[in-house]
């Protein structure tokens, strides 16, 4: 069986970290006797520069004929003019929508070797192992928006259908069955109508999962509990914008944004896999970016799109073993400790598959 992987490096450090993730997938292929083909496509700022569009049609076609997508990052100061009509981020939002990638999984686990890297006290972090399921193709990101009064009034609309809410809730409940059987549904039902529909739907779907404990939290309280009792969470499920904000917050539990992977899933097995960090233009081209978030995203790709659980676990094990041996990129270095480059980190991990 040949697995076709699309590689969309994007901007900044995106191509550097995506290349290391591809390297690790190649190591998996040769160790386990799989065949993978890698084809690159343009997205984001570089796609604007080369084609005028942040998401060329050719990239959408490439993704559609692939089994999974490795994604780097998009954006940078070059394309940051707020009045520009095309922006790199439209490439990412566009591909999520075009491929129906409605469920974004962002696991946050504390790596024992990095217990002191977080700004939060180690005692609070102990046993933290959670995953946020963020709704990714609805809500205020995709609702009607615009300007009135000659530009002096602006509006964005948070809109959800019951069907959109239900399908992402089901992803969360199913995921919890393979974990610690707890779901925290997050909304703002004391204020927002879309959240009241979210809460009603969550209460109804929860009845079909009597084996799962379901709690409901308001998003502001959840933001607080995330840093107060992180270990008490198992699966958190929430709408698009709340999920965007809560996952940046949750990432700091692990010490570095450079460590965290994500999976964006559609109805079938197609998925897009990207580190949760951005394009980090300040360190692009220097060979110092941490490729671990991208490499752990490749592990999620093996697990969710290719259904290769053993291979996924091997990648996660290789990352742990390299960290346990003390290898660090700059962002997770001990004060005064030695660091390795992006490429060396990728090679070390690939070498242990
Ligand atoms: C993310 C990012 C994106 C988002 C941006 C780049 C559009 O912050 O994936 O979390 O807001 O979804
Ligand atoms: Mg974000």
Describe this structure in words.
The chain has 353 residues and is of the alpha/beta class. It folds into two domains: 1-117 and 261-353, Isopropylmalate Dehydrogenase, CATH 3.40.718; 120-253, Isopropylmalate Dehydrogenase. Helix content is 40%, strand content 20%. It contains twelve helices and twelve strands. The chain has helices at 14-32, 45-51, 57-64, 89-98, 122-125, 162-177, 193-207, 219-228, 240-251, 292-304, 309-324, 342-351; strands spanning 2-10, 35-40, 68-73, 103-109, 129-135, 145-148, 153-156, 182-187, 213-218, 235-238, 261-265, 271-275. It has a ten-stranded mixed β-sheet, with helices on both faces. Strand 6 (145-148) and strand 7 form a beta hairpin. Helix 11 packs across helix 12. The longest helix has 19 residues, at 14-32. It is globular and about 50 Å long. It starts with a strand and ends with a helix. The model has no long low-confidence stretch (mean pLDDT 96). The structure holds 3-isopropylmalic acid and magnesium ion. 3-isopropylmalic acid is lined by residues 89, 92-93, 244.
Topology readout:
Layout: E1 2-10, H1 14-32, E2 35-40, H2 45-51, H3 57-64, E3 68-73, H4 89-98, E4 103-109, H5 122-125, E5 129-135, E6 145-148, E7 153-156, H6 162-177, E8 182-187, H7 193-207, E9 213-218, H8 219-228, E10 235-238, H9 240-251, E11 261-265, E12 271-275, H10 292-304, H11 309-324, H12 342-351
Parallel strand pairs: 1-2, 1-3, 3-12, 5-10, 8-9, 8-10
Antiparallel strand pairs: 4-5, 4-11, 6-7, 11-12
Helix pairs in contact: 1-10, 1-12, 6-7, 8-9, 10-11, 11-12
This protein binds 3-isopropylmalic acid and magnesium ion.
